[in-house]
Structure to design on (374 residues):
């Protein structure tokens, strides 16, 4: 179901005070029941027709929404919000010229409405004309700031152009202008976290952005691995481990996204050597029996379009004071073991990266080979 804006709620605020059934259903957001009034359209007031149109919009039936907005307009409900919502539905229907016409009508009625001008930018963005979209987002940003969202889209378009310095600067402006309750506030934090991590490599600023995103969306576990990687890059390993433990608890409670539940590993670190790029994944399940994997390390070529090597940390048979986990490699159907391991379940990330570096520099050789099935 689509977002509900303050705009349309304000539009019908007076109507909600009534006692007619469509009004009550609109007030309770019972859109499924409200669209059943389609059969009684001729007897509905202009405001009620607009409510039914909005219900169709919320249920993503934009063709029907447009029909009812037209009925409402024809019956005298010819105000700017109705044209605004009609424009949104037409945009979803990819009827861009008609959408522009409707938003222009809304802007004539309310020439300084920032949300309307932002919508005009979104029409051109949906159409694929980002240069023209940027013009309208810039125009919206010059209006009295009542909405904030155009500041995000300005940054987003520069980000897409790979003008990363300007994009990051604009994202910080957006963070000041967008209300926290707007969904693009967290999107702005995510983009700041990403650019501070990958572009400026200012990991503390990346951490700060992801921390706020997680605090605002504690059940959105897509941000947790990003925060873990930022902590690890900033060498705040204990904090990274604490966030990973939260993910493990969510995993046990079946709360993680489908992909994480399926693959049972989390990307906790990305870094580069002289020739390769590496990603380290940590298992959400404890290594309890022999050959259970606690870490996977993927070595990519520098373009990051091909996996060159895969290393694992696996549980082994602990004899006396020997190793409990060993470093291995999966290569061409073979299972290689290296003379490097850990005597406890605590495997410091820095140690694991140091061991991988020794192998990549040919300073650590395998000491055993086991083929699949042996």
């Amino acid at each position: 179901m689509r977002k509900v804006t303050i705009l349309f709620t304000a539009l019908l605020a007076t109507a909600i005070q009534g006692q007619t059934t469509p009004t009550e259903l609109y007030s309770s957001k019972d859109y499924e029941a409200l669209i059943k009034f389609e059969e009684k359209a001729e007897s509905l007031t202009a405001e009620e027709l607009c409510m039914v149109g909005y219900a169709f919009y919320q249920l993503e039936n934009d063709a029907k929404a447009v029909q009812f907005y037209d009925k409402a307009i024809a019956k005298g409900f010819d105000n700017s919000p109705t044209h605004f919502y009609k424009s949104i539905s037409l945009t979803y229907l990819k009827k861009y010229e008609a959408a522009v016409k409707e938003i222009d009508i809304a802007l004539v009625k309310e020439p300084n409405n920032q949300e309307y001008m932002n919508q005009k930018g979104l029409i051109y963005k949906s159409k694929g004309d980002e240069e023209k979209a940027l013009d309208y987002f810039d125009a919206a940003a010059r209006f009295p700031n009542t909405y904030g969202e155009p500041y995000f889209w300005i940054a987003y378009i520069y980000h897409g152009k790979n003008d990363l310095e300007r994009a990051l600067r604009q994202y910080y402006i957006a963070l000041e202008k967008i209300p926290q309750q707007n969904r693009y506030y967290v999107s702005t934090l995510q983009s700041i976290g990403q650019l501070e991590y990958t572009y400026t490599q200012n990991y503390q600023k990346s951490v700060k952005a992801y921390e706020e995103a997680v605090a605002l969306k504690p059940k959105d576990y897509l941000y947790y691995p990003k925060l873990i990687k930022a902590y690890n890059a900033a060498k705040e390993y204990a904090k990274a481990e604490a966030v990973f433990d939260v993910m493990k608890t969510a995993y046990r409670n079946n709360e993680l996204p489908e992909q994480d539940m399926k693959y049972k590993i989390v990307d906790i670190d990305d870094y580069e050597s002289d020739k390769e790029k590496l990603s380290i994944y940590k298992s959400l399940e404890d290594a309890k029996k022999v050959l259970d994997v606690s870490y996977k390390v993927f070595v990519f070529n520098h373009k990051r379009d091909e996996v060159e090597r895969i290393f694992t940390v696996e549980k082994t048979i602990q004899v006396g004071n020997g190793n409990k986990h060993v470093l291995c490699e999966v290569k061409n159907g073979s299972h290689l073991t290296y003379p490097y391991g850990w005597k406890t379940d605590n495997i410091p990330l820095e140690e694991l990266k140091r061991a991988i570096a020794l192998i990549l520099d040919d300073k650590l050789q395998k000491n055993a080979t086991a083929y699949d099935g042996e």
Remarks:
- Residues 180-263 form a domain with the Serine Threonine Protein Phosphatase 5, Tetratricopeptide repeat fold (CATH 1.25.40).
- The chain has a mean pLDDT of 91.
- DSSP finds 17 helices and seven strands in the chain.
